[in-house]
Amino acid sequence: MTELFGGFGADFYTAYNESYPLHPDYPVRKILYNLYHVLNHLNLFGGGYLSQAAAMTQRLLAEA
């Protein structure tokens, strides 16, 4: 979720990856995990998040 709404600086991600290397599936997992939060925002705040949720869903389906 640290990359969903702006994220942290590059130094954070470099240090994190040095301490705990990311799984090779991370790019796809990130989409799946962040989709939950985008869907929640869609539910709470309305249609402004619909296109983002649809795009994330399409990317996940393309990986299946």
Record keyword descriptors for this entry.
64 residues; mainly alpha
SSE topology:
Elements: H1 10-19, H2 26-45, H3 50-63
Helix pairs in contact: 2-3
Describe this structure in a few short sentences:
This protein is mostly helical.
Q: If you had to describe this structure to a student in words, what would you say it looks like?
A:
With 64 residues, the chain is mainly α. It has a domain at 25-63. The chain has helices spanning 10-19, 26-45, 50-63. Helix 2 runs antiparallel to helix 3. The longest helix has 20 residues, at 26-45. The protein is flat and about 40 Å long. It starts with 9 loop residues before the first helix and ends with a helix.
